[in-house]
Amino acid sequence: MAEAITASFEAAMARTAETALERIAAARVSIETVIFGQTEVVEQSLVTLLSGGHGLLVGVPGLAKTKLVETLGTVLGLNARRVQFTPDLMPADILGSEVLEEAADRRRSFRFVQGPIFAQLLMADEINRASPRTQSALLQAMQEYHVSVAGERHDLPQPFHVLATQNPLEQEGTYPLPEAQLDRFLMQIDVVYPDRAAERRILIETTGDTKTEAKRVMNAEELMATQRLVRRLPVGESIVEAILDVVRSARPGEGDPAINKHIAWGPGPRAAQALMLATRARALLGGRLSPSIDDVAALAVPVLKHRMALTFAARAEGETVSDLVTRLTGRLG
């Protein structure tokens, strides 16, 4: 009897996985009909959402970061809203606020008016152009999936994801994000310049009189079903140990002293959780039902780089967080 139940469960999971793989493949194709030459960025963005997390897209203006987030909302069938972060933006402009209303009998009461954060996909555009106070308005929402206004709790829609775009800190009018908020982002996705062939395609396909539109291939319920599947994928003991090795060796006082001496502070347990989920999601995105060491190596940099800081001496010597993490993953068996 127990064997029959187990077999039935495995067959049902196989059917669920097959359907999910088809949807994910279709979503990727649909996204890449309008986003050219950013294969790794598209992959990491999908991994972030399939993991149930939030993503921080970093790059100079004009690299289609905003277009990518809009496209993801369309393709995945999510209710999406956009907030343009500016220096004068206030927390209430994001969360919402209480307004005083007077009824016909002259009784007065407060009514909560929801802000744009009440969406399934929130695009925080140029998030580092707002003050740290306003940036911090997202902290509770990104971790606890509800907000508190005037002492009252207001639950956010499900699923809830924040995809924020950020200009490099060297540019004018930017504020660094607080470390506590950076840790809420499952992954930092670096958006780089396209290669020549991709830029040529951009020139030809985006300056004519016809416009290609991405098509919806999933809805919110299907996305959440896929996220549940990601959490059910088996992870081998060797993968668990590899994740622990990378994350723990990226902290001061642990791992190789030659690398360790460059680290001022490193990632916490949330980083290991993020890497575990992300490797599962990347495996599923690649048509596999179990992650490998290659998945850990491929995702260690985007998952860890915004959760670490170098010492002053290391920065003076030209070291970077990405290089250190790459050296750590190079030791994985």
Automatic annotation (TrEMBL):
Gene3D superfamilies: Magnesium chelatase subunit I, C-Terminal domain, P-loop containing nucleotide triphosphate hydrolases. Residues 260-327 form the ChlI/MoxR AAA lid domain. InterPro entries: ATPase_AAA-3, CbbQ/NirQ/NorQ/GpvN, ChlI/MoxR_AAA_lid, P-loop_NTPase. Residues 54-187 form the ATPase AAA-3 domain. PANTHER family: MAGNESIUM-CHELATASE SUBUNIT CHLD (PTHR42759:SF1), MOXR FAMILY PROTEIN (PTHR42759). This is MoxR family ATPase. It comes from Methylocapsa polymorpha. The lineage of its organism: Bacteria, Pseudomonadati, Pseudomonadota, Alphaproteobacteria, Hyphomicrobiales.
